[in-house]
Design a protein that fits this description.
The chain is an alpha/beta fold. It folds into two domains: 128 residues, Rossmann fold; 139 residues, NAD(P)-binding Rossmann-like Domain (Rossmann fold). 38% of the residues lie in helices and 19% in strands. It contains ten helices and twelve strands. Strand 7, helix 5 and strand 8 form a beta-alpha-beta unit. Helix 1 packs across helix 9, helix 1 runs antiparallel to helix 10 and helix 4 crosses helix 9. The protein is globular and about 60 Å long. It binds NADP nicotinamide-adenine-dinucleotide phosphate (NAP). NADP nicotinamide-adenine-dinucleotide phosphate (NAP) binds next to helix 5 and helix 9.
Length: 285
């Protein structure tokens, strides 16, 4: 689509953010849907955040994705916040409705869309183990709770953060002590790695978030890491015939929900994924 005076502008705000895959993913979506919108990245230091949000209103920018470190601080600068974003105190998507800015959080529900799409899994009535208790784990725990999961077990390096995250789960939440990991893994329908262990740029590829030999054939594991597309943990689990999926789907499906909030249309997820994979593979060379 040719950029013109009537092109609608959206983007992602964060710091740093120039490395973000979101422009590749969302611009592929707009191209595929033949919508005259363009998406770019706005690297914004924290002290400029309020000015940047004012700029959305002033310039009529249709919406923004929000990433670190602004997901919490942006909440107080908006006119309205969705229930999920309010509970999580984290916004990852802003919609500009004629100058009225509403904040949403599409991360956790995007994760559930991804698991449904990739593995055909409906989490209702299932037992899930989440490894980690940071921002992504919290959004997933919140969405799992809303979706009727039978048990949300959480293991984390720092117990206090796990207990905080478990407040989002309510009565179905369970803190997992070190000596209970083996039993909880064996009973889990889904195990999620929401830590950076195994990520390319941390260099931490020697450790596993959960020992692969605790899994059995036919179990399901999702690693939220998307660079590399397949992590050492996923490969070790595949050797044990565990079904594994990486984090790219969550990234795509949370963006697909933003696309729907902004445009009112279903997102072309296949085109978005293709563009993201192409970008990651080219970067890896
Ligand atoms: N696919 C997607 O769309 C998507 C979206 C968001 C994030 N992610 C990925 O998900 C992962 C977590 O992101 P986040 O935003 O939730 O990060 P975060 O808020 O910084 O939380 C990181 C979590 O990992 C734990 N952790 C970090 N290093 C560890 C280590 N060496 N050993 C054990 N635990 C460790 C932390 O434990 P403590 O509590 O003890 O510090 C914390 O629970 C990252 O790999 C990120 O790239 C993917």
């Amino acid at each position: 689509m040719k950029i013109s005076g009537s092109t609608t502008l959206v983007g992602v705000i964060g710091n740093p953010v120039k490395h973000s895959l979101s422009p590749v993913i969302l611009n592929a979506a707009f191209r595929e849907a033949k919508i005259n919108w363009v998406y770019t990245a706005f690297e914004t230091p924290e002290e400029k955040l309020a000015d940047a949000i004012g700029g959305i209103r002033a310039l009529g920018i249709a919406g923004l994705s929000v990433t670190m470190p602004h997901k919490s601080t942006v909440c107080s600068l908006l006119d309205e916040i969705s229930d999920s974003a309010q509970t999580l105190n984290a916004v990852n998507c802003i919609v500009n409705d004629s100058g009225k800015l509403k904040g949403h959080n599409t991360d956790g529900d995007g994760f559930l869309d991804a698991v449904k799409h990739d593995a055909g899994l409906d989490v209702a009535g299932k037992k899930v183990l989440v490894v980690g208790s940071g921002g992504s784990a919290r959004s997933i725990i919140h969405s799992l709770g809303k979706a009727g999961t039978a048990e949300i077990a959480v293991v984390n390096r720092t117990k206090k953060k796990a207990l905080d995250a478990l407040e989002l789960a309510g009565p179905i939440g369970r803190y997992v002590e070190e000596n209970e990991i083996s039993e909880v893994v064996s009973e889990a329908n889904l195990v999620i790695n929401a830590t950076p262990i195994g990520m390319s740029d941390t260099g931490d590829t020697a450790n596993f978030p959960i020992e692969p030999n605790l899994f059995s054939k036919g179990q399901l594991a999702v690693d939220l890491i998307y660079h590399p597309i397949s992590t050492p943990w996923m490969e070790a689990l595949r050797d044990r015939e565990v079904e594994t999926h990486g984090g790219l789907s969550m990234l795509i499906f949370q963006a697909a929900r933003a696309f729907k909030l902004w445009t009112g249309k279903e997102a072309p997820v296949d085109a978005m994924r293709k563009a993201a994979v192409h970008e990651i593979e080219n970067k890896a060379q």
